[in-house]
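Take a protein:
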Amino acid sequence: MNIPNKENIDRWLFDWTEGNLSPSQEFLLQEFLLLNPDLESDAEAWDAASVSSIPFTYSNQESLKRKKRRILGYWQFYASACFVLTIGASLFYGLSQNNEVKPTQKNKTQVSNKSKISLKNNIKTGLKEINPTLLGLSSYKKELTNKRVIEDKDFFISMANYSSSLKEQENFNNYDNLSTKSLIDYQIADNSSSDENSVNDFISYDMSSTENLTEEKNDKVKKSLSISLKLNPSSSVSKWLKKEVTNTNQKERIYSLPEKSNLDINSSFAGNTSQFKFQSMSTARWMNTIDQQKIAQQISMDGYLRSAKSGLGMVANYSTFGNGLIQDWNINFIYAPKLALNRYITIEPSMKYTFGKKVLDNTKIVNNANVEFETNHLETFTIDPSQPIGKNLWYRDLGAGLVINAGPVYLGGQLTNILKHQDNLYSNDYSSVRKANQELTLIGGTDFVSKNGFYNFSPYLCHTISGTVNTTYLGASVQIKSFLLGGSIQPNGSSSAMIGVNSNRFALFCQSSYVSSSFSQQKSFIHQLTFRINSNISKKVRRYLYL
């Protein structure tokens, strides 16, 4: 708003009516209104719309003042109320406790006095009276009167209360032993058949209760043994077995294999995380053997498309061999849908379309010379000088992959060059066309993650079959926060080592492999440098195609 014009005149008029313009700005506005007389009506409307403040004084200012609260009076009132409620609750609770405890204490006092004064005189009668009560009133002697029955009931209640009080004092075992011993002594002195049955019933009752307690203890011991044999739910093994598919498939795979990235091993890894990834991998092979050296560059991009519930990827490769003897360009398009059977099992198939071109420099060909364009695949040039030699070889092919995530483990396989495209690069004899080798790659592994997530151990096993060449790799990677170490080994002694940094947004890996050469029959180095940039992880929930 440097100078007024017809586009911002309303803003200038508003600031003018509000008094926000400086004197120089007011002069510019007045000059502009003079040059544009048609805007005077707008200026008058803005001036009429402004409202000035009217001074007003309230006559009763004292009534608006806040009255001071009588904090002391309120405190005294609430303190008195709490004191009265506390005293009332205490009295009520004390009276209720006295009403419940007094009869028990009275019965306890009566029983204790009787046992102290006439324990010997009444033990016979007491035991006779307890036994029928324990066995039930139905077996009680019919010759006793109703009055005696009532007294016996009162006596049994007193003895039961006395027994419970002794149990609370943890002396019931001694009392029980004394009663049983006195009962046996009394039974010996008295040969009455009815009393003998009562005593036997009492002993059998006591023994049955003991057996029940023993059975309960045995059941508890068996139960504890059965629980100890089960897998502890809080153990690390149990948590590892109960991992859901989010712990296996939503992870960026890192492998320490020569001349291979994660998308080369299996195209189903495209879109395994909810972020866009850009990766660059540079490879230099056997620099000490000039005529067999190979330099390759790979650039890949992949991501997860939530609307399609699939992963999409693109991989572009360029390689030059033997100082330009053979050059290879190819581009691969990957489609990897994400299918779910349940929360623990997902299936990730993939399809890959490859389109490329190989260029041969016929001026550098040495006839009948051996070359190793692909590692451990030895080829021989057989050129007929009388026949023309081709320069460009266009090719296209298909590939398919599959990864199964089952809880904490994953298994996968990939087959490339399904159509076996023409690869008649080493001969100009077209009577027998050479086909490209199919390559089958099998991969399997798992992950062990610490509780705090700072440590991650990921072992894996990879096996490749390409033509007549079989190669097995056993490897693992260890990640401590963002620092990563990895490596793999082959049965023939070849090995690879990796060191790098891996974070959510950035990754850099340096790898060296000591691999056997079919050309030199010796081991040579292959060096790789991998650089990766990731976008922010999407917070939206991943979607799957349910079968």
Notes: The chain has a mean pLDDT of 76. The chain has nine helices and 19 strands. The CA atoms of residues 490 and 510 lie 19 Å apart.
